[in-house]
């Protein structure tokens, strides 16, 4: 529900900062570690068009596995998170 609400709140925007500031996204972050498997499943289901879950993952986990040269390439960014999460989370 929170993910759906977040998508409705933000509409179409290219600003990752704005996307991360909406109340539903902040509530997802507020869920802490229990939200990580959900986020990973969401990103995986989004296939070649992963949504901007990266800020939430970084805030919740304290990790940033995305190499600098992958910034802006959401597919590579998602893959970096999947690789990092293997063995840490089941999703």
Structure overview:
With 91 residues, the chain is mainly α. Helix content is 58%, strand content 0%. It has six helices and no strands. Helix 1 packs antiparallel against helix 3 (23-30) and helix 3 (23-30) runs parallel beside helix 5 (54-61). The longest helix is centred in the C-terminal third of the chain and has 12 residues, at 74-85. It is globular, with a radius of gyration of 12 Å.
Report how far apart the termini are.
18 Å
Task: Please give the count of helices.
Answer: 6
What is the beta-strand fraction? under 5%
Please identify the structural class as seen in this structure. Answer: mainly alpha
Instruction: Tell me the overall shape.
Output: globular
Helix content, binned percent: 55-70%
Q: Which sequence of SSEs, written as H and E, runs from N to C?
A: HHHHHH
Number of strands: 0
Name the poorly predicted regions.
Answer: none
* Largest beta-sheet characterization: none
- Let me know the average pLDDT: 93
Radius of gyration: 12 Å
Primary descriptors:
globular, mainly alpha, 91 residues
Reconstruct the topology from this structure.
Elements: H1 2-10, H2 16-21, H3 23-30, H4 36-45, H5 54-61, H6 74-85
Helix pairs in contact: 1-3, 3-5
Please outline what is shown here.
The protein is an all-alpha fold. It contains 6 helices and no strands.
